[in-house]
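Moderator note: this is an archived Q&A kept for reference. The question asked for a predicted structure of one protein chain; the sequence and the answer are reproduced below.
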Amino acid sequence: MTGRWIEANGLQLRYDFTKGRRAPIVLIHEMGGTLESWDDVMLPLSEFASVLRYDQRGVGLSEKVPGPLTVDQLAGDLAGLLDALSIKEPVAVVGNAVGASVAAAFSALYPDRVAALVMLAPATGLSAERREVALRRIEAIERYGVRAAFADGGSDVPPRFATLRLASDPIGLCAMWRMLAGLDMTRLLPRIACPALVAHATRDTSRTEQDIARVVGMIPGARMISINTTHYMAMETPRLVCRTVTSFFEECGFQ
């Protein structure tokens, strides 16, 4: 089993840290995922830099804490994890989907700790229509469980991700869905001061190019890139993700 445990921000987090020749790249997984979501990018990224990945609170094998979630709280967990591991130098942060919102919040709230940011297919909130769908999904998870709630599947969901999601704690998964349903990043995105790259997946069925462009427009100096992949890009196109991430960090002078 990959990972170790450490006390951070008042709870136990499972993490995996691979030491490399640069300061750490921190990988933040999507809703329904775990640190294993990044398995396929670990080898090439660890040849480029140190890599830190972890299960967010309520997820995977990290501690299950009752109550609602906020993106500020999840950003604070990452700050606590870096403190617990005595990582003092600025890190590069990569997040996918909801993990991208956590990465952005961390970049905004802890600017001295971030050298560069990459947001992959960011989920920074929901339209009114999608919010209603999310609330129905939450109700289904709570009443019937994870398997039944996602029985409709979805042709764009990789089998490995679907397997990871089946192992989700229903309470933790619902807490993160509720956070997304009420998420408003407009106060945080304009505060990001580090170099930022926001990636649109051309085959993403949940986030359009216009959705991603709106995110980019709120981050000072951010760049947008469209890449031929899906919402679950680290699983579906890991080499493409690695090239995108490392090229941008090299361009930023990340050391």
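Archived answer notes: The first strand starts at residue 4 and ends at 8.
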